[in-house]
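Sample entry (809 residues):
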Amino acid sequence: MNINCRVLRLTTALSTALLGWTSPAVAQTAPSERAKLAEPLGGDIVVTARKREESLLKTPVTVTAITSEMLEAKGIVSMQSLASSTPGININNSSSGHADRSFQQISLRGFTPVSTTATTTSLFVDGVPVASPSPFTSISDPERIEILKGPQSAYFGRNTFAGAINFVNKVPTDEWHGQVTGMVGTRGNWRLRGSIEGPILGDALTFRVTADGFDKNGSWRNSYDGSTLGDESTRNASALIVAKPTDRLTIKAFAMWTKDEDGASAQTRIVAKDITTPGGTVVYKNQSNCFTAAGRAFICGTTPGLINPVGANTAFTSKLQDWLANPAGRLVSADDTVDHYGLLRYTTHAHLTADYEINDNVSISLLGGHNTEKWTTLVDLDGFNSSAFTGASYYNGAYYDFPYLIERKTSDWSGEGRVNYEFGAAHGVVGVSYLEATTQTGSGTPMYGGRPGTTGKNGNKTYGVFGGLTYDFTNQFSVSVEGRYQVDNITVFAGPNGQTVQGSTYIPAGFYTANSKLVGGKFKNFTPRVIANFQIDPDLMVYASYSKGVNPSQFNSFMIAATTTASQQAAAAALGIPLTVDPEELTNYEAGIKGKTLGGSLTYTAAVYYAQWKKLITAYSFILDGTLFSGVNNSGATDLYGAEFETHWRLSDLVSIDASGAYTGTDINKFVSPSVSAYSGITNFDGKEMARTSKWSANVGVQFGGDIRGFEDATWFARGDYSFKSGVWADQANIVKTQDRHLVNLRTGLSKGKASLELFVNNVFNNKAYTSIDDNWAISPTESFAVYNAVLVGLPELRTAGVQVKLAF
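Predicted structure, serialized as tokens:
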């Protein structure tokens, strides 16, 4: 029996069971989740954008708050689906020859990091920072997700240059509740999620535990062996304990563990020149349609559809197994290493928070958190079925293959203490924070008989003092003055086997012992924000703000690597390549409006902004003495401007509409990239747009629903969501961009008492627009890495249908 038959039979059986369930349901006084969706969203939502609880419509900051009910209604279960349904956000997962979940770079409001390792939008769980998007891979039953737009440095600190995303846990109650959700669908999709919560010591000590398993097959067939590309598997578990020893003290302890194990990624290259065997047989056809100013054949305009089979060499040979099992040069142990092409990742997150209300005017909050992440990904770097290149001289002794291993470990500790106060017309917060983090990477290929190389650790220690004062001059007019003083100490350490520096151009030459300090820097910054807001009437508020932001410095640590010669160091210095680049700087101006009308049935928010991004850290490649290097420099400046809106309208008890949209404008003033200029011939990037961000994006959702006549405590719903994102440029030359993406998702279902059944179809019209794009090379035995002659694109999930059942108890 195929999966479609199983889904159909399961759907029919469960529909019959639900509609025929005439026995009294368990007492349920609260409205169902689907009933809540018909209520106007926004007015009753509480957010913590300024480190204190405030109504969304009274908070003078641009915030998108997505409740657990809306997450459920839209079927949002990952960072990718969150970004797809939220205007102004793009997820870039194409970098260094792979497009997979190991690399997820968030672009908010067009603030696309140019450097692969840079971050402009940070993530938090209950206000505690997390190291990467990995913990968000499985979003398990949150209270809400807050997307804060614009610089959030004043309150959230490091790496919140473009904004912050805060995942807020749902507090367990003192009554026993549980829920089991099962989903099965086409393309091997299944999900099983369970949670239980209740009292340990009455309402003084409560808990919730959740477990979530998810698998899916990819949507694309591998021309190499017929397997699927883009397979994903996630296992996630979390626990939350809430203690309330007194009415004034609340302590929360949360821990989460996630394992991601994916197959070879769904990606391919579009090449600008034929890949041919030595005999002249074309293995991979070019799709060039223009010549750049440098006289090179390339792909211009909107990326074309695929004419070549999608493929990757994924044979996990014994020779490759032996290479991975050898611990020499490895960062991640063999026991935790991927044993197939694809990704294996483990992440943990834990935090502890305490809130104590001293009196009606003063409260204290303490937060502490810890994250770890380790992953390995094995990619087929050539990215196509290259078995036509036969010969015993190749790595695996049969045909050309280019396996490439990438490894990464991260760990961080954070702490924060703050005091919230309110004295008459003055109220606000003051606090201190600390963050210590380390990152280490490794990579390599057996292609040339070598072992992987492991870098020394990169570390940072960040101290901050922050605060804000809001003064209500009248019942309608308030001014807030906020800011953070921050000290960043960043350090590069020698590798695990020590490191020899050959020249003294940047640091003294000589041997540095294992894990000893090579170079460090201290950076002090103050990031203010001033907000004025005016409550025109109880249902309408306008605001305007001025804010500053900084993004951390970086090092060109490759210039002091053991393989970099003294002459190469001197040549790099002559080209103006620094060892240390300055922090990026941002000045942001913003104005917005929030309100509700039509008796509260319609809520709306809108904002416009203008930002100046200076000392932009750009990534570039260059050749010194015949060796290819990649580095960073403060060689960019960009103006960013845009408009955003969001509205929720309950037309009647049966119909509700939510809509949102964003215009994201970017205007490059200065940009330097030798690697981009080499293929494009463009050296003056003035007036160009930032890469990998959609200029236009919008979402519209319409939901119908109500009671089922003749059945007690039974409801039905039907929902359609349309998401649009305009195509994104591959780089700042603005030569090639992806197609516009139109995504339509449909869901319908019914519930009776504590049971519900849903049917869904995602990507109804099977839109095949690429999800990401990045410059790359056509890789083969006869090609080199000298100049870009291809683009790497991520492939979308195609139409998927399924059924979901939920039982509460």
